[in-house]
Amino acid sequence: LIHIGPLVAPWFSSIPTFFAMRENLTATVATQFAVLPLLMGSLGEVSLIAPLVNALVLGIVPLIMAVGALLASISAIGEFLPQSLSFLTLTLEPFRIITKMLLDILMWGARFGSDIPYASVSLPGVPSWTIALVSLAILTVTIWRTRSVHRLQTS
């Protein structure tokens, strides 16, 4: 992500920064490139729509994690409260509802993307040499790009 992201970032310069759409799309596409050999070899399928769907729903993931961490922390503390203070755990209900709603949105986005016809390309029986060649190409471009950037920074 660190090395491939700067390579793909110029492709998305026209994407608005609203809700970090540009950054999310850049990160998703860079990650897709990095795991392309794995997707080809183990899954035998490459999603064409995943970067867009990920960019759309990725913005709510930090909120889900934050609310989830809050819920888990308060719930853990609630286990040690005396019975007389157990009503405090009832205050968690709005947070549970918010978390459930956010997770539903995330899952809806994933289902929506997977239901789009021709959203993925099936690659049955991809030979090992093809996977190795794609891996080598990704590694070569990443190394070349890293060295080019390093040379520009040191000169």
The neighbouring-strand order within the major sheet is 1-2
Largest sheet: 2 strands, antiparallel
The Rg value, from CA coordinates, equals 21 Å
The percent range for strand residues is under 5%
Q: How does the helix and strand content classify structurally? A: mainly alpha
- End-to-end Cα distance, whole Å, is 25 Å
The helix content is 55-70%
Overall geometric form: elongated
Poorly predicted residue ranges:
none
How many β-strands, per DSSP? 2
Q: Treating each run of at least 4 consecutive H or I residues as one helix, how many helices?
A: 6
The arrangement of helices and strands along the chain is HHEHHHEH
